[in-house]
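[scheduler] slot 2 assigned
[scheduler] job type: sequence-to-structure, two independent chains
[scheduler] chain ordering preserved from manifest
[runner] begin chain α
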Amino acid sequence: MNLSGKIASAQRLLTLFSLERITWGFVGLGILFRLRQYLFDRSLWLDEADLVLNVIHRSPSELLKPLDYHQGAPLGFLMLEKSAVLGFGNDEMALRLVPFLSGILALILFASVAWRFLAPTAVPVAVGLFAISDPLIYYSTEAKQYSSDIAVTVLLFLLAGYLLERKFEAGPVVIISIIGAIALWFSHPAVFILAAIGLSCLADALQRQDRRGLFLLSIPGVLWPSSFLLNFLESLRGLSRDSTLLDYWRSAFAPFPPSSLADARWFIDSFFDIFSDPLGLTLKGIAAVAAVLGLIEFFAEHRQRFVLFLTPAVLTLVASALHRYPFRGRLLLFLVPSLILLIAAGLESLRARTRDSLPYLSFLLIAFLFLDPILDAGVHVRNPQPKEEIRPVIEYIENHRMDGDALYLYYSSLHPFQYYSARHLIGPMDEIIGIESRSDWKPYRADLDQLRGRRRAWILFSHIYRWAGVNGVDEERLFLDYLDSMGRRLDSSRAQGASVYLYDFGIQNHRAGPAMAAGALPRSWASRSTETEP
């Protein structure tokens, strides 16, 4: 090798070394963001409490049965959560330990996936977006299965890359087939990822006319569907028939076949929305264009990668059209790794094509995409994200209660309250569990009338139902309007997403409550779907 060749080789090594340092710097930053959010130790909110009560109060064998409160989670995840409870207790940090570790693992594995599938200069972009994604940071500290869904997805992508590189050697095929079958018990959407892996490997074997490879692919072709069928019969079948869940997610099911302009608009909106939720990017138009460019690049240069990263979204959309899997929000978090890889590949393709004519275009687009997420992540280092801070409100009641006080629980506050009551954050009280009657206000009046004559009664709110339509509704304000007509407000305490009010109902307050007194719910509200958790 001549001198110029040695210099060029040294420059390439230096560049790779610098890119690797930047990449692992982003990994470290992402770990810091996730650790800060985890240590914040926020209160459990309704959706977490619904799942956690199942984990805490059931034995491991009882977790095999359908869960209460319209909850569903992979059996493997539930067993890991139960192990954390048995090993470390049932406080919030123990319950969020599995998601937190899953978030860290996913971040580290994603760096390896990016190096395997992307050009070296695109790797820091992909890892950086993954590290600072606000939804990925937040869901790494929520006691639900979404973070482990992402970790399983990234692990399967890593194994897929290994399999495609090794050209289907018998040993790796068997091992990966077994891992894939197990993964289905730890992540429901893993079925979409495994289908994508199977199709990409099949396309590769057919392209190379590899008969031996096609024969070896029969191993996952039998093992994965068998594992999924068993998993479906064991736990997923009940979820697919839960009318409450189906009703809650009905607007997230693809309208197929589309029969109106609104139906066609659903597909367009859903495509762009996934770049803001769950990916967490503000400039979703730039992200969408970059992802499409990434697909075009993979289709032209790496057909197997095109199939691998596009198929999960397509299959999820098909399942949505069949009303089997909602295409929205946190349930699509497992698509984030493939979306980020596509965006990074698209930006790298753009950089290569505009290197001479517009040398700074791709750098500007990368800067625009990073700006809001990195600012949000920085803000949340100082002020981590709360959700529904019912714990300090319950502690306020305990610190200011008197003997004989009553406690009225707004219906959505019941399960979080039960969790904290079981942890003895509050002593026994005369508890009244409120009813849910969103379609007719009159039962609320009768329910609250139980408090008449009580000298001291606390009313606890969290996860308040609100709808900001033409006739906007806020059930907390609705209740307070009627309560103020019943008695005198003595005290109150508020936190993010939760509040409590102390009333004296031993006196008669004749002020009319116009909203509650109206009785009937506005017709425009009754025709709308709810926007809170079931």
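[runner] end chain α
[runner] begin chain β
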Amino acid sequence: MDAQHAATEMDTAEHGLARNRAEILVAGGNCWRIERAQRLGFLIDGAQYFAAVRSALGRATRSIFILGWDIDSRMRLVPWGANDGLPEPLGEFLHALAARQSDLEIYILSWDFAILFAFEREWLPTFTQKHHRLSFRLDDRHPPGGSHHQKVIVVDDAVAFVSGFDLTLRRWDTPEHQCVNASRIDHEGKPYLPFHDLGAVVDGAPARALGELARDRWQRATHRGALALAANGAADCWPDGIEPDITDVDVAISRTDPPFEGRPGVRELRQLHLDAIERAQRWIYAENQYFTGRTIADALADRLAQPPGVEVAIVSPLTQSGWLEVSTMGVLRARLHQRLRELDPDGRYRLYCPHLPGLDAAACLNVHSKILIVDDEFLTLGSANLSDRSMGLDTECNLAIEAKGDQRIRNAIAGLRNRLLGEHLDRDPAVVAAETARRGSLIGAIDALRGPERSLLPLEPVVAPELDMVIPDQSVIDPEQSLDPGEIAADLIPHKDEQRVAGRLVAIALLFFTLAALALAWRYTPLQQWANLDALVRVGTRLEEGPFTPLAVMLAYVVGGLLVLPVTLLIAGTGVVFGPLLGAVYSLTGATLSALVTYTIGAKLGRNTIRRMAGSRLNELSRRFAKRGLIAMIFVRVVPVAPFTIVNVVAGASHVSLRDFILGTVIGLLPGTTLIVLFIDRIIAAIREPGVATFALVALVVGLIVAATLMVRRRIARDQIQKPD
């Protein structure tokens, strides 16, 4: 049976299924808008995508909007050299476009990245240094923990690109994904590993709608307007060399946009994925960088449990990128995978990774694509990962199409799936189509076409037990909604205790004021004759040299915890005696050990005993501890909800897991402990070597503490006003 005949038979069978299929796309529900496009093209891998982007940008006469998670002015869209006579680096290229077209306005919006990514990104992009009609801004208008993750480019409101690609370094590659490629180098000439991603280019009404989306995001991020939408009939900006995969097709635009500053949230992509998975009848094919979301895993688990069996094939990278992602998103993926494997006795679920011969065992093809295909009837692609944060916390944008009985659209969707599988399996797409039709099984076709060289391999991610024990769950690493500090405070601090907590914050600030005042007194009053600070420090130096010093310090913290001594005073004393570095280490270790001992006491006493002994206020704290877990522990270490020892006992009795307790204690104590010992060190420096600089630094630290105290008090007061009596 040839490929065309097999595909025809399969199309006939699928047509019967399609007639009974409820439509997935609903404007105003799981998508923002559905607009008719004249042309839609799929762009696989960076060589095709970036060349198309450069071609379309070069045709711009009126406006360019670029939205991205990361945008780097040093990247080259066409690393082998373009033939358009314009500079190769992105920043210089865009400046040249602005200089060439007198009416062209260029708007570039990139996420104002978290410090975790500081060493991976360009700190000071050069976009705005040369031309006044090129505007570059960093987008920081997000709830805590969220990011701008949309990857959208709009040219003259006539052509638009939506993808998983960022216009940044180390994204370009060809479908061959050769282990060595002289063109796959970064701005410093250093080679990088193979990279796989995909996107789409669309024209007509969907491009115009994406122009509206880009302007809205620009205005919200910068509080500045942009050039108005172009009138209909704009010049043709379709990129050279790109043949559309489908014409005259309805294209849906789906978004994730978290609630922020009174604006309601948008979760169209969450609903779109759930609806598509629910309507699947034969198979689900996905490629995704992050398969970590509990929401998606729950939906897949439901389908795997329902007859008739739906197949699920997911392509994901062998390993995540960098130690941080391996230790977080990699752990979550392994947990979800293990869960689905246990719920799949019939073998209808597979997780695959592309294998490229010649790469080191620890290296792999970086699968960065984000696409979901259902029964070759539905397709969505764009920026959204199969993660919870992509469903609710980060800004995202996808395009989607649905066949609804139109064989042209079915062929376009099936054609893209066959191209993707053909690339990964090193097979011709026609061979993939024929084998899938012959077997009537997506997983069966993949397994039959796997070869000994370049291929797809079943992936069985595992996590070291010690790592699995300390890594928290999705609600912390991959949250679907922002962890609002005000909401946590309202949940952990009973209404009647808010002023008491604010009072403790004031007391801490007064303690630092007192220490600063004592520094002045020690230097400029007779107090220096009564209390010899140098002698105290010399005692500490001798203690440092003793073989049992660490044990003695740990014992002091444990005893102090049992006696309910304020841990702040213990940390301050440790800083005086042992200095900033060793003092911070001893303080953090001792406080954590003391916390563990009193936590164990609370666990042994049990919740009933604590309920009888503690009274209603701490009983309420116990209940809220059990609800919040790790987040609660971090919060109460930063904000003094109750005395240190009491918190530990209540946490133990509340069945807060030992992992959450230890992690929350260390994370929550670290900033305060560091600040206290550094403050003490500056106090000692001010006493020994008084001067404008030393006292100015002391004053600065005190000012920061007071400012933080006032800010927390103001937040508590605001929440108190907003909450009903």
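[runner] end chain β
[qc] chain β: The domain at 31-244 is CATH 3.30.870.10 (Endonuclease; Chain A).
[scheduler] slot 2 released
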